[in-house]
Every structure is written in C-alpha cells, then in structure tokens.
Amino acid sequence: MTPSGPDAIPATTGEPSPVVVIQGLSKSFGPRPILQGLDLTVPPGQSLALIGANGTGKSTLLRMIVRLAEADAGRISVLGETVGDLRGAALKRFRARIGVVFQKHNLVARLSALSNVVHGVQSRRSGPRTWAQSLATAEVREEAMACLEAVGLSDKALQRADSLSGGQSQRVAIARMLMQRPELVLADEPDASLDPRAGREIMELLFRLTRDKGLSLIFVSHHMAHALRFADRIVGLGQGGSGAVVAFDRPALHCNESELAAFFEDADGTSEGRVQAALPVEALT
Ligand SMILES: Nc1ncnc2c1ncn2[C@@H]1O[C@H](COP(=O)(O)OP(=O)(O)OP(=O)(O)O)[C@@H](O)[C@H]1O
Ligand SMILES: [Mg+2]
Predict the structure, then answer these.
(1) Which of 52, 115, 205, 278 has CB atoms 3.0–4.6 Å from 56's, for a disulfide?
(2) Which ligand is nearest to the CA of 54?
(3) Beta strand 47-51 with 32-42: parallel, antiparallel or unpaired?
(4) What angle do CA 173, 89, 26 make, to 5 degrees?
(5) In 3D, which of 119, 173, 171, 179 has the Cα closest to residue 147?
(6) CA 51 centroid distance within chain
(7) Cβ-Cβ contacts under 8 Å for 101 (sequence gap 6 or more)
C-alpha cells in the first residue's frame, strides 16, 4: 500500500523530504496559550512568508524551529532531526545548519565588516582554537570576502561595523549567515527598521541567495508586498480557540493584497495589519 498523509515516507513516494515538519505544536507562556496544535510542512526550496498580527507567535515559532524556545506539546522535525531530542553538541551542530537573520543584526560594533563575516565560520566548526585559526586562515578570509561580495559589500570589508548604515549592516549579517553554509534560512522581519527601498533590497537579496542555492527560506514580514513578491507560499497565524493556528495558507500567486488585508481584519480586527496590507506592491518596485 502506498503511504499517505504526514507520515508518508518520501523515499517510497518519490517526493523530496520536507525540510520542516511541525505536528500538533503547542506553546504557552505561563497561563497564556500562544500556539495551539499547529501543523506546518515546508518542502525543500520553498520561500514561505509567515504573517500575522503582533503577538500571534511568529517569532516564537521561528525560535522553536532552532530550539531557542521549548515546545509544550507536539513535534518539530527539521532537516531530518527531531528538534526536541537534540542536546549539547548535537544541538549545536544542528543550529549551525540553519542560518538565522533577525531584525536586529547583532554585529560586533568595533570589528570590521569582514571580521564580523569571519565570525560566521565559528558556528560550523568547533574546538577551542577555532577563532584564532579562523583569523589566520587565508581560505576563510577569502570565503568571507566572497560572502561580502555576494551581498554587494566587498568595498566595505575593512569598515567598522558601527560606521555602516542599517541596510549595509543587515547585508553584513546576511553575509555572516552565508558563511555558515546554511541548509535552511529563517528570517524574522529582516525588512523592518529599514527604509522601503533598503527593506525591499534586503528581501530581494535573501530571496535570490536562497533560491540560487535551492534553500528553503521562512521569513516573517509585516510588509504584505514583500510576502506577495518574495514568497512562494503565504502562511498566516491567527487565533484558534486557544492560541494561534495556521489560519491562512495559500500559494502567493493565488493571493492578492485585499485577501491579505481581509485576513488581518478577520484575525484580530486591529488596524495595524490593514495599514501594512494596504501598501501597494507597485509602491515598492
Ligand atoms: N520569553 C517569553 N516569555 C513570556 N512571554 C513571551 C516570551 N516570548 C514571547 N512572549 C509572548 O508571546 C506572544 C507571542 O510573541 P511573539 O514575539 O512570538 O509574537 P510575534 O507574532 O512575533 O509578534 P510581532 O509581530 O510583534 O513580532 C506575545 O504575547 C509575547 O509577549
Ligand atoms: Mg516577532
């Protein structure tokens, strides 16, 4: 019999293995339920926009994928690993396979752009002498330069991080993440805190770099134009009975701005989502 459903074995069906499989995920903070029985499967190479009102649990969900937050119930499988089972060195190795970009880029202010990018190699290596060795290795510096070039910043390699603009700093953070040679990329509002053009360019960059390498990208954005333009699929978190569930799940090609605006209105009735969703796509092109 051919297996079917979420437990189907990809090798048997010929389907490529999903990169992320989330089943029945629940999470509360104290008495407050945040996520409730959430299911989500992400196939390889997909760009997925995660949308939803403030406080619905989008960042918490991304954090749980790399086990920076613990699930109360349910199962998360990422890159073939059951995340909840990972401990110590295995967890560290697992995290090194996932590139994460945050709204706040967390560069080391007094170091050059290049040295910040070199830092990215640390997570894919281990051992007490790694940092000193990394600095000394011409090969690593060459790779870091190539990563800076990939984000269009090779001319800023020796500039201190604290002298870069917000958009340039986010590019350095992306170059540092590339240095990890990630197998999956998560980005939590990488386009926030940037002007419209810089925000769009950062999204374009993340989309292109992940697409070129065939990597899945899961990004959170409050800019509906970015969700429509840079995602294959748009998933919206919205309130279920008790905590958020996947309340919207559509191919981006089959979505439009008014549907997304309606999702925000239905989900929580706040004006914030409506304002963001009302941004015309053309205004950002
Ligand atoms: N460590 C924590 N301890 C207690 N509550 C938390 C913690 N982290 C998040 N929360 C709460 O969980 C809820 C979901 O937070 P989360 O940051 O995941 O939302 P979000 O969807 O990313 O929101 P936003 O769009 O504003 O970024 C919020 O009510 C938040 O206050
Ligand atoms: Mg958030």
Answers:
(1) 52
(2) 1
(3) unpaired
(4) 75
(5) 179
(6) 12
(7) 170, 173, 174, 177, 185, 186, 187, 188, 190, 206
267 and 239 in contact (C-beta within 8 Å)?
yes
pLDDT tens per residue across span 266-280: 865 443 433 333 333
Structural domain boundaries in the chain: 107-181
Alpha helices for the chain (secondary structure H) = 10-13, 58-65, 88-96, 113-119, 130-136, 138-150, 166-179, 196-213, 224-230, 257-268, 271-277
Mean per-residue pLDDT over the chain, rounded: 87
Contact partners, residue 143, CB within 8 Å, separation at least 6? 121, 179
Q: Are strands 184-188 and 73-78 parallel, antiparallel or unpaired?
A: unpaired
Q: Is 195 in the pocket of ligand 1 (CB under 6 A)?
A: no
Write out the two tokens for 152: 């269009």
Give the predicted TM-score (pTM) of the model: 0.87
